[in-house]
């Protein structure tokens, strides 16, 4: 069955889209580029089969200028939940270029964000470069535990040190 219960993309988390819009505006006049991480809808409390685009992954070493953005595939995160790509077009054109189409076959969905980077200044495409509807979902991605200890653990450790 694969990583996700269904490969159907149900939508993009509002927080992921907002991050990408802000990053695109900050990168202007250069292009912005990132990868989209997918999360099984059931892990987000949705009672549906499918995948939600939940986060934008920033790829180290991405090079960009006003007409392109690229990264070496070796620098891409080794992340099995990668489900798509997202990048900006500082000229505001919400259509894939020939170069964009050459990379679209690698994932399920691709989003282009255009200047001036507002809530309506983006369009999603399938791997063939055809426009698709992609709902924006008001969901909270699950919190990932970066550290495997809590504040209680720290306090306990400090008390033990004081008692030594």
Automatic annotation (TrEMBL):
TM region(s), chain numbering: none
InterPro entries the UniProt entry points to: JAB/MPN_dom-containing (IPR058877), MPN (IPR037518)
Chain ranges of the MPN domain: 10-131
Gene Ontology BP term (one): proteolysis
GO MF assignments: metal ion binding; metallopeptidase activity
Record-given protein name: Mov34/MPN/PAD-1 family protein
């Amino acid at each position: 069955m694969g990583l996700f219960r269904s490969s159907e993309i149900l939508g993009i988390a509002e927080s992921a889209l907002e991050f990408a819009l802000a990053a695109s505006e900050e990168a202007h006049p250069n292009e912005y580029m990132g990868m989209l991480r997918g999360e099984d809808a059931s892990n987000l409390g949705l009672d549906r089969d499918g995948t939600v685009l939940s986060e934008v992954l920033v790829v180290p070493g991405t090079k960009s200028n006003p007409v392109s953005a690229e990264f070496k595939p070796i620098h891409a995160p080794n992340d099995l939940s990668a489900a798509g790509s997202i990048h900006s077009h500082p000229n505001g054109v919400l259509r894939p270029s020939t170069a964009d189409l050459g990379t679209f076959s690698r994932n399920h969905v691709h989003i282009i964000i255009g200047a001036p980077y507002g809530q309506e200044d983006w369009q999603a495409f399938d791997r063939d470069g055809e426009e698709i509807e992609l709902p924006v979902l008001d969901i909270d991605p699950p919190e990932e535990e970066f550290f495997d200890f809590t504040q209680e653990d720290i306090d306990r450790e400090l008390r033990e040190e004081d008692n030594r």
